[in-house]
Amino acid sequence: MKSRGGISHNHRHIPVGKDHQAHCPSVPHPQGSGAPPGMVTPPPPWAAVPIPNHYFRGEMFPNTPPAPPLAQLEAITSCTIRSALFHVLILTQVHGQGGVKFQNWAKTYGSSPELYFQPTSVEEIREILDMARQRNKRVKVVGGGHSPSDIACTDDFMIQMGKMNKVLKVDKEKQQVTVEGGIFLSDLNVELSKHGLALANLGAVSEVAAAGVIGTGTHNTGIKHGILPTQVVGLSLLTASGDILECSESINADIFQAARLHLGCLGVVLTVTFQCVPQFHLHEVTFPSTLTEVLNHLDDHLKRSQYFRFLWFPHSENVTVIYQDPTNKPPSSSANWFWDYAVGYYLLEFLLWISTFVPSLVRWINRFFFWLLFSSRVENINVSYKIFNYECRFKQHVQDWAIPIEKTKEALLELKAALENNPKMVAHYPVEVRFARADEIWLSPCFQRDSCYMNIIMYRPYGKNVPRLNYWLTYEGIMKKYGGRPHWAKAHSCTRKDFEKMYPAFPKFCSVRDKLDPTGMFLNTYLEKVFY
C-alpha cells in the first residue's frame, strides 16, 4: 500500500524451522538488522510479493477457484500455510509515511524521519517497534512538538500519538482521570470541565500531549504545587520488548518514579492517570513593581498568592508581578485587544526586527513596552485553565533552569550585573521567574528541593535569528554556579557528567533505562549526550 511521500511495509516475524527455511524462499537477513535466528525477515518495500489466488475466495475474488476438498488439506505443506499467514500479515500491516519533515513549534529544531507513523492502537505501535527491531532503527515519540530543543528529533522512525487521544475513564469519587498518552491538554481541560474537574496546575501551553508534558517535566508556578508530573498517579508503558507495564506508587514503583519524567527513553507511554481537583476559577492580578522590591520581599509574595510569578525586564529595574488565586467571582477581564495584539504583537515584532540591525535598541524596547503595556494594574477572572494558559505568539529561543529557591536573589542580581557590565550583550524581555514545590521524581529539576525557575528568552522576529551566544553562556554559568538544573525540554549544553552531579538519583534512572531499553531503541542525539 502506498502512502504519501513513500512506501513502507511492516511485517510480523514468523518463526520457521530449518526444513521450512529450506523450502520457503525468504529475504536474507541484512547485516545488523537485529533479526533473531529462525525468523523470516520481510522483503524490502520495493520487493513485489505475488499473492496466490487460492488464498482468497468469495465475492471480492470471483475468478478464484474454490477451496480444496477437506481430504486434500493434508497435502498442503506447512510452507504453504506459513506463506498464507505471511501474506495476510502483509495486508494488515501498519504503514509509515516517508518524506515527512518534522519541526518543533518555534522552528528552531527539526529532522527528517525515515518513516513517520500515526498509530491508532497499541497493536499498531507494537508492529512499529517490531519493524524498528528488525531494521535496527531507533524510535522517537512526539506529541505537540512544542519542546524548544532537539529532544524529539530523529532520522529513523517517528511516532506521532495524536490519534490515540481518548479519555478512557473519569473516576469522580477519586477525582482521577485516565487518558491515552496522545491527548492534548487543551482537549483534556474541556473534557474535565464537563465533569466538574480540573488539573490543579498547568503550564503556559496546552497544545501539548499528556505523555509529553510528563516526559520533560512541564511546570508552571506556585510554591504549594509541584511540576505537572507530580499530578500523575498511574501510567502504562509499552517497552521495547513489546511488554505493557502498569506503574504506580504500589505497582512497579521504581519504574513509576522514572517514568513520571521519562524523557521518551523508557518506552511508549500509552495511558496516564492524573489526580484532579474540583473545577475552579482564578482571579489574576497583574501590577508593576521593581526588582529590588520583589527580591527583598520574595517570601511575602510567595505567601500572598498561591500562583505567584514575576517578569523582569532586562536592562532596567522594571518588574511585572502576577498573582493568580482561586475565586468564586464570575469571569471578567480588563484586558484590551488593541494593546494586546496590535501593539503587544505586531509593533513589538517589527521593533525587535529593527533591533537586529541596531542591538542597542533592545534596552529601549524593553523599557518602552513596560511603560506601554505593563505599567498599570490589570485584572482577569476565568476558569483556571484559561488563566494558566497564555498564547506564545513569537517564535523564540529559550532556556529555563531551576535553582534552589533560596538562591533566587543572588542569581538574578548576578545576571543583572552581567548585562550591565557588558554593553554588547542584550536580552529580550522578559526574564520569567516561577516557583515549584520539592518532589521525589528522580529526574525532576525540583528533586528534593523547593525551586525557582528562571526562564530567559530571545525572540526570532519574522523568523530571523538574533545573536544570543554570550547571553546564553553567561546565564548557564550563573545557573550552574547556584546549583541549577536545566528544563529537560529546553536547550542546554549539559552532558552526562553534569547530570551525575545534579541528580542524586541519576544512577537509578539509568539502571531502569538499561533494563527497559537495553539496545537503545528510544535514544537519539539529544539523549546520547544525557546518557553517554
TrEMBL record:
<dbReference type="GO" id="GO:0005840">
    <property type="term" value="C:ribosome"/>
</dbReference>
<keyword id="KW-0560">Oxidoreductase</keyword>
<dbReference type="InterPro" id="IPR010031">
    <property type="entry name" value="FAD_lactone_oxidase-like"/>
</dbReference>
<dbReference type="GO" id="GO:0005789">
    <property type="term" value="C:endoplasmic reticulum membrane"/>
</dbReference>
<keyword id="KW-0285">Flavoprotein</keyword>
<dbReference type="InterPro" id="IPR007173">
    <property type="entry name" value="ALO_C"/>
</dbReference>
<dbReference type="InterPro" id="IPR036318">
    <property type="entry name" value="FAD-bd_PCMH-like_sf"/>
</dbReference>
<protein>
    <recommendedName>
        <fullName>L-gulonolactone oxidase</fullName>
        <ecNumber>1.1.3.8</ecNumber>
    </recommendedName>
</protein>
<keyword id="KW-0256">Endoplasmic reticulum</keyword>
<dbReference type="InterPro" id="IPR016167">
    <property type="entry name" value="FAD-bd_PCMH_sub1"/>
</dbReference>
<dbReference type="InterPro" id="IPR041988">
    <property type="entry name" value="Ribosomal_uL24_KOW"/>
</dbReference>
<feature type="region of interest" description="Disordered">
    <location>
        <begin position="1"/>
        <end position="40"/>
    </location>
</feature>
<dbReference type="GO" id="GO:0003885">
    <property type="term" value="F:D-arabinono-1,4-lactone oxidase activity"/>
</dbReference>
<dbReference type="InterPro" id="IPR006094">
    <property type="entry name" value="Oxid_FAD_bind_N"/>
</dbReference>
<dbReference type="GO" id="GO:0019853">
    <property type="term" value="P:L-ascorbic acid biosynthetic process"/>
</dbReference>
<comment type="function">
    <text>Oxidizes L-gulono-1,4-lactone to hydrogen peroxide and L-xylo-hexulonolactone which spontaneously isomerizes to L-ascorbate.</text>
</comment>
<feature type="compositionally biased region" description="Basic residues">
    <location>
        <begin position="1"/>
        <end position="15"/>
    </location>
</feature>
<dbReference type="InterPro" id="IPR016171">
    <property type="entry name" value="Vanillyl_alc_oxidase_C-sub2"/>
</dbReference>
<dbReference type="GO" id="GO:0071949">
    <property type="term" value="F:FAD binding"/>
</dbReference>
<keyword id="KW-0687">Ribonucleoprotein</keyword>
<dbReference type="InterPro" id="IPR030654">
    <property type="entry name" value="Sugar_lactone_oxidase"/>
</dbReference>
<dbReference type="GO" id="GO:1990904">
    <property type="term" value="C:ribonucleoprotein complex"/>
</dbReference>
<keyword id="KW-0689">Ribosomal protein</keyword>
<dbReference type="InterPro" id="IPR006093">
    <property type="entry name" value="Oxy_OxRdtase_FAD_BS"/>
</dbReference>
<feature type="domain" description="FAD-binding PCMH-type">
    <location>
        <begin position="109"/>
        <end position="279"/>
    </location>
</feature>
<dbReference type="GO" id="GO:0003723">
    <property type="term" value="F:RNA binding"/>
</dbReference>
<dbReference type="Pfam" id="PF01565">
    <property type="entry name" value="FAD_binding_4"/>
</dbReference>
<keyword id="KW-0812">Transmembrane</keyword>
<keyword id="KW-0060">Ascorbate biosynthesis</keyword>
<dbReference type="InterPro" id="IPR016166">
    <property type="entry name" value="FAD-bd_PCMH"/>
</dbReference>
<dbReference type="InterPro" id="IPR016169">
    <property type="entry name" value="FAD-bd_PCMH_sub2"/>
</dbReference>
<keyword id="KW-0492">Microsome</keyword>
<dbReference type="GO" id="GO:0050105">
    <property type="term" value="F:L-gulonolactone oxidase activity"/>
</dbReference>
<keyword id="KW-0472">Membrane</keyword>
<dbReference type="Pfam" id="PF04030">
    <property type="entry name" value="ALO"/>
</dbReference>
<comment type="similarity">
    <text>Belongs to the oxygen-dependent FAD-linked oxidoreductase family.</text>
</comment>
<keyword id="KW-1133">Transmembrane helix</keyword>
<comment type="pathway">
    <text>Cofactor biosynthesis; L-ascorbate biosynthesis via UDP-alpha-D-glucuronate pathway; L-ascorbate from UDP-alpha-D-glucuronate: step 4/4.</text>
</comment>
<keyword id="KW-0274">FAD</keyword>
